[in-house]
Amino acid sequence: MAHPKETRDKLRRLFIFDQQPIETAALQCNVPIGTARRWKSDALADGDDWDKLRAAQTLAGGSMEELARQMLAGFLLQYQTAMESLNANDSEEKLTAMARVNMLASLADSYNKTVAASRRVLPETSQLATAMEVVQALAGFIRDRYPQHAAAFIDVLEPFGEELAKRYG
C-alpha cells in the first residue's frame, strides 16, 4: 500500500521534532514499523539523516539539565518499546531464547550506563532511582513476609507514587 508524502513527512516530524521513537511515530501514522524504518533508511541514503537532525533538535532545546532529561526520557521510551517488543507474543520475528537473553543483557547494561551518566548531571535521577529501589524492596518484603497485607500495600502504593513524582519529579 502506497502512503501519501504527507504521512512520511508526519512520521519524520514526529521522530525528529517530537522526539518520538520510530515505533511510536509509526503507530501514530498508521504505518507498519518496517515501513517506517525503511523510510528512515531511504532518507539516510538520500542524505537526510533523521538521527543527526533529531540530535541537533535535542541539543538546541536548552540547558544541560534539560538536555540530560530529554536524553534520559528518550532512552526510557526506547527501553520500554524494546521490552514491549520482547514480551509481545505476536512478534514478527520469533527470537530464540539466546537472542532474548542477549537483548535483555544489552538493555540492562544500557539502562545502567544511562542512569549512571544522568546521575552526574541530574542528582534527582539518583534520588528517584534510590526511592524506586526502596519501594521495590518493600514490595518484595511484604510479598514474602506479610502477604496478607499485599492488598493494602497496593492501595497505598498508587497515591504514594504520586507523592514520589512530586518530590523527585
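the 2nd protein, sequnce then structure:
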Amino acid sequence: MPIDVDKATSAPPVRTEVVWDERDVRLYHLALGAGAPETDPRELRYVFEGHERGLQVLPTFGVVAGGTGGVGFQVFDLPGVDIDLAAVLHGGQEITAHRPLPAAARGTAVTRVTDVYDKGRAAVIVQESTLLGEDGAPLLTQRNQIFVHGEGGFGGDRGPSDRLPAPDRAPDLLLEIPTLRQQALLYRLTGDWNPLHADPATARRAGYDRPVLHGLCTFGMAVKAVTDRLLDADTSAVAVCRTRFAGVFHPGETLRLRVWDTADGYRLTAGAAERDDAPVLTDALITPR
C-alpha cells in the first residue's frame, strides 16, 4: 500500500526553517485582493508598512510563510507516504493563532502526520504543523486534511465527523467578493507552483475547463472579509479559523459569502455566484478571541 499508516504516524517530526519579511506579507494580502480601494485606511493596514497601526498580518498568512505555498505541506516527502499528486485533494484546513504573527520573522515549522483515516474509496492524511517564533514559542498551529483518492479500504479508522452545518436561518451578513481573472497567477507568487492554477492544459487533464483558484486563497479572502466587517479589521482578533474545501472556484468569479453570528463564532459558507452558488467553502468557522 502506498501509504504505510504506522510508518507515517510514527515518523519523527520534520523541522523546517521559515523566514519572511514585510514584502512577503504585503504580497500575500494583495493576492487576496487587499488594497482596494487603495485610499481606504482599513485596506492600507494590510499593504502599507507606514500605516499608523502598523502592518497587520492575517493568521492565514502563516500557512504560506516562508514562500512554501503552505507551511507543513511536506507530506509527500514523509516516510510511509508514496502517493500520486494527481490523486490528492486538499480537503480541509484549520488554523489556531496562538499570538499575532509578526510582519517579519525567522521561525521553525515542526510538522508531523497525526492520523490517516480510511474513508472507503479515499484515505485522509491529517498533517499538523506548528510554526515556532524566534523565541521558540508557538505562533500558529495548522492542521490540514489531505484526501488521497483510491487509497482507502485498508480497514482503518474512519475518523471523527467534523461537519459544521450552517444555521437553518437567513445569514446575518451576505457579501459578494469579486476576484481578478489573474488572481491565481498572483497567488502563485506566495509559493504554490501547482500548474493546475496556471496552465489550461493541466486544468483540462484534471477535468476543469480552465485553471482554478487555490483553495487557501478563497479561504484567506473569506477570513479577511469577516475580519474587516465584523472584527474592525483587527487581525489579532482571530483566534481560530477552519473550513472544508467543497468545490472549485475560478479566477474572475464572484465569491458569495454567507456569515452567521453564533455562540461559537462566525459560521460561514462560500459559493460561486455566477454558478448558482456552487459550493466552494463549507463547514467554516471563525472564532474571535
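The longest strand covers residues 105-118. The chain has six helices and ten strands.
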